Amino acid sequence: MNEKKLCMADIQNKIYEAGLLRPEEKVVLITPNCVLLELYTGKTYSYRMVDLITLKAKRLFSSQKPLSSSGYQKAIEKMLAQISEVEEPIPADKHNRARELLTYTFTDILPKHGMTFRENQLSLALSMLDAMEETKVALCEAEVGTGKIHAYILAATIYRLFHGSSQPTIISTSTIALQKALTEEYIPQISNILMEHRIIEKPLSFVVRKGKSHYACDDRVRNYRSSILNNGREEDKELIETLDCLYTGACSIDLDSLPLTDYVKGRICVERCHLNCDLSDICRYRNFILKSQTNAFYFQIANHNLVLADVLSQKGGRNRLFPTCGLMIFDEAHKLLDVARQMYE
């Protein structure tokens, strides 16, 4: 049963596209030819079955509580007694099902959201998915306008859905501009589309990883803020407001998002982070790093330098900068060699 749940994406989307999946209704059980749907009405749990051969829905029963293990077994018996006699079970081949869903996403779903279908974009995404399935390295080149970002985000997402991997996908880039595009445009857009079409149930989560000098140190912020306040200069009013924001936790510790000079950032950024600090128990940077080392995020986005620094850390027997990843994608890979030369010289 767990394996079926991990491969639920295409089945749930098929029911949604057929107009059979109601808002707030969810697939809770899959058998070879039918699924069980659950809808909480506010008072009771209503259960329906959908025959995957005929794509017809039928109400089964209601319950005051969610089904127990024995309740699911009774539901299976009821469904099997009513499904189509035609033998056409759900294909067991995850790879083919993943390819079919990826293809359908590009040919049918994305055009509904204003995106033109491009054969070369689909071909690129399928090549990436094949490499992921076969645990191989794929070297993909695409001309401007192909839509490579949509291709690799969707290929990675669908691969993860079908294989049940909880490990994050690392996306390595060479520019801040691409990182901003990924986090502010592409991932939220794809996430919303896949949720609308019931392929995923939760938004695609992500975190941007940077070197420690890009983050504020709570202890150094506290000390620098104190020295600026003691100066009592009128021209430091805006600076004090920003430092207050950092000090109280009202804004992010990501210094790239704050209106500060390089000098100020150098005075408050993380230099050394150790347990002897009196703020270590509530240190936001430490908490951020600890969470980033888990599988809490679908995507971890970083630049080539940090990813290669992680390789050096592993080689030197030091702590890893990233958690173990399921997939690694190098965008702007043509710049990777220059970065490697700079770091390894």
Automatic annotation (TrEMBL):
The keyword Signal does not apply. InterPro entries: Helic_SF1/SF2_ATP-bd_DinG/Rad3, P-loop_NTPase. Residues 107-345 form the Helicase ATP-binding domain. Keywords: ATP-binding, Hydrolase, Nucleotide-binding. It comes from Lacrimispora saccharolytica (strain ATCC 35040 / DSM 2544 / NRCC 2533 / WM1). This is Rad3-related DNA helicase-like protein. GO terms for molecular function: ATP binding; helicase activity; hydrolase activity. PROSITE patterns: HELICASE_ATP_BIND_2.
